Structure formats: C-alpha cells, structure tokens
Amino acid sequence: MFDTLFREKFQYPHDDLIRFVLTVRKNYRVVPYHNWSHGWTVAHCSFVTLRKTHIFSLIEEVALYIACLCHDLDHRGKNNAYMKSMSTPLAMIYSTSVMEHHHFNQTVTILQQEGHNILQSLTREQYKECLSLMKHFILATDLALFFKNKDRMKDILTEGNFEWDRKDHRSLAQALLMTSCDLVASAKPWSIQTDTVKVIFQEFYDQGDAEKKNGASPIPMMDREKAAEMPDLQVGFLQGICLVCFDLISQVLPATTQLLDRSKQNLGKWKQLASESKSKQLAIDIETTKKSADENHE
C-alpha cells in the first residue's frame, strides 16, 4: 500500500521500507485485538481514503499512513484507565494519553533504527513536520480526545464556516479522520464486524479479569459475567461514537461517506440482536418468577 501511494511521489530505499514494515509487525504484541491485524486494517482505511481524495499534502499523506500502521505499537491489551489505576511504569512516564504517547515513541524509535528510515529523503523541515503530524494523528486515537474534537467540529459545521485552509479546522479534520480509520471495524461487512467484536470483547474481558484479581470492579463492558449485554453495548458504542465520528468527517471529506452508510447497517443489526437478547431474558425472568410462585403456592 505504501508503494502504491508514494513510490512516484518521493524517494525511499525499498529495502528500508521492507525492514520498517517487518519491524513494525514484530513490535505489535500478540493480544486479541490491538495487534498487527488491527494496525494493518486501520492503515488500509487510510489507503482507501487517500486514493479517493487529494485534499492533503504529501507530508500529511505520509504521516497519516505511517500513523495508522503504527498507532497501536506495543499495545498490551489494556487501556489508559487500567494503566493509570495500576500505576504502571508507562503511566509514570506519561500523564495523559498514556498508550498513545507510547505508540508514537515506539514509531519514532523504529524509524531511527539503521536501515529503517523511510523518510530519509525528506528535508529537515519536512521530516520535522511529518513527525509532528504523526504524533497528532496517533494521539487522536485516544477517545478521550475525540469528545472534545467532535464538539468543536459540530460547532464549526453548525456555523457553516469550515475551511480546509484554516490551520485549526484542518487539524481538527485530520484528527477526526484518524479516529474514523481507527473505528473502521464498525463499518466492515457484518461477518467481519461480528468476528472483530468477539476479539475486542475477549481483550476487554481479559482486562476485567486482571482488574478483579487486583480487587477492582470492572465496568460492564469488561466484565465477562455480563456478556449478555454485548449487543446493547455495541448499540451504544456505534450511536455515541462511531456514527457521530463518521457523520462529521463525511461532511468535510465526502470520500468517507461509505463508513457512515455501512456502520448504520451494522447498527440496525446490533439493535435487532439487542432486542432479541432482551426478549430472551424477559422470557427467562417470567419463567423464573412463575416457577417461584408455583413453588410458594405448593
């Protein structure tokens, strides 16, 4: 994908590109969801988007693609809240966006290894700009930042004055595009969407188990004893985050409209599953109540 996008736009040793990609792959840990497969999928979303639009500069495109490929490097299968609550070494280093800062630093470390710098032909200023953008993109995958970004973009769009040439507007759109790429699983065909959700929740439950071992109570999303709530949780996630993000980015970057359309289709199916799950639970509750009443009557 990198070759397809950039081989005619700037120079880089092909062997360095191969080494870079292989090292990135090696530095993704074997965890259920935040692994190499996820990194590749997010990078593919940026690839498709960049092939459809020409709004970004070369440096922006390179930074976005590399950021997508590397955005979860060395992820441990635990979120920022866990890192902070457990006072992990990484949480001692980074006070905010703990894992995202770590992912960015891992990316830079790989680029600086001998035979890995695919950006070596850039000028000093271009290289500096590219690293700054990569950090901006990777930090945008922290959903804690998404809520501020989406509120700001909503205000801008409501006022009807979004301009790509305004630095703050452009930076905001870049962040929302990166978040959209990170959420692309929600817009995949239903069979892929459900398979992905299974491994996401496997990772969530692993964190919940670790929290229980440390005497903490996990949130419902990470409590395997509340697995029946998964469809409802997915409905909330798609409605509250994914569709909101996809809707905003599609308004300023129409090439991403398919993300919104497909995630809406998946939302409908999750709603159906949630309804069926509630119906089954209601039937169980009614039967349990009836059985208890019969026993008391006897």
State the CATH architecture. Orthogonal Bundle
Level of helix content? over 70%
What is the general shape? globular
CA-to-CA gap between the ends?
A: 71 Å
Can you tell me the CATH topology? Catalytic domain of cyclic nucleotide phosphodiesterase 4b2b
Q: Strand-and-helix sequence, N→C?
A: HHHHHHHHHHHHH
Alpha-beta content class: mainly alpha
The number of distinct helices, counting runs of at least 4 residues, comes to 13
Calculate the mean pLDDT score and round it.
Answer: 92
Report the major sheet. none
Proportion of residues in extended strands? under 5%
Gyration radius, rounded:
22 Å
Give a count of the beta strands, DSSP E runs of length 2 or more: 0
Report the uncertain regions: 282-290
Assign the CATH class. Answer: Mainly Alpha
Give the CATH superfamily.
Answer: 3'5'-cyclic nucleotide phosphodiesterase, catalytic domain
What is the count of structural domains?
A: 1
Protein name: 3',5'-cyclic-nucleotide phosphodiesterase
Organism: Panagrolaimus sp. ES5
